[in-house]
Amino acid sequence: MFTGIVEELGEVTAVENLGDASRFRLRGPVVTDGAKHGDSIAVNGVCLTVVEHEGDEFTADVMAETLDRSSLGALAVGSRVNLERPTAVGARLGGHIVQGHVDGTGEVLERRPSENWEIVKVSLPAGLARYVVEKGSITVDGISLTVVEAGPDFFTVSLIPTTLELTTLGRKQPGDPVNLEVDIVAKYVERLLASTQGAAR
What is the pTM of this model? Predict the structure, then answer.
């Protein structure tokens, strides 16, 4: 489990095409400190497993399913990525509960800069719109954010200078894809309500 609090801005150093998968090598001195084979690291909000670790770099295999459902397939050597290690039991939950299981991708539609923050508008796949509410939580490229406005096919978030400086959202431009993970609580509530209504019939 993650919390959506990005620990560092890493970099893709190699991409190997494995046919029905890809192997990424990524640099991240903070997240690789103490890392070992089998550990989990979130890369732009996608939970990946460490295959190898050497120095400040690690490799991870990404299956076709993940490449199809996320924006990781668009990464290339030199791409910057948000990195986060799983939260430790007993640690503070700084963001919200994030699984690292991407629900879909959106696209940056617009950036509106202000003096001390920036509003970013992101497209929202139709199947996810029902889980997104104003002042609720959403994960964008692994970043736990609060929804400012929730439209039928978009949402907006307000980014503080720290987020702009230390994550990929400071660099994303209109047209760029982003990974989205909606609040897991909303999905469980929907499933439970559907079960309850079905049993009442």
Answer: 0.90
